[in-house]
# Entry
Amino acid sequence: MKKKKDIVYKDLLIRTLEYCYPLDKFSMEEVKTGLNLTDEEIDHLRKYEHEGRGAAQLFEISGQNKDNNEQTYFLYRLTPVAIFNYLEYVELVNAKRNARQSYRVAIVAIVVSSLAILIPIIREIIENFIRLNSPVS
# Structure
């Protein structure tokens, strides 16, 4: 069974990928401000920026920059693996949505075809009932 914290961090990673995907370069401070993250969440994200994590590495250092106070900070970019995994995630979400929509359309089609079969049968039964119960002239 997954812990609640694992689910929260999974959501954090997906939100981070969604935020960073359109950006060419970004700093962790931009991510923190843009997603309104806590220091604990940023610390969790920093686990995915270092070399040697294999497929789990989401960020790689792309350069350095200086802010107004002349402090140096790193600029990051998403790794190709992170981009590929994000695109797979988006495809999976779309596939699930399309599957639910296809299921609903199939149910409606079954109901319509059932009605198309039942209506003539019911109509014939009613006409025969009326014919049998009407006075003979």
Notes: The chain is about 65% helix and 10% strand. The first strand starts at residue 59 and ends at 66. Residues 12 and 83 are 16 Å apart (CA to CA). The first helix runs from residue 4 to 20.
